[in-house]
Amino acid sequence: MSTATAAPKLQPTITARMLTVFVIGDVLGAGIFALVGEVGGAIWTAFLLAGVLALFTAASYSELVTK
Length: 67
Hints:
Helix content is 67%, strand content 0%. The chain has 67 residues and is mostly helical. The protein has one domain. Helix 1 packs antiparallel against helix 2 (43-66).
């Protein structure tokens, strides 16, 4: 006689609205940090790097939401 129990089912807690707020916060936060640093004439590179990092963060959050 076995006493196997079913594994509990995980419930998603991050909604699409929360994900959007997180991504916008990441973009704004990255922009603020990019503006604080001294980059000289290549200020666009700081925004490009901040955008790429925000895209990675957004991809990570979207992957978590789909799990």
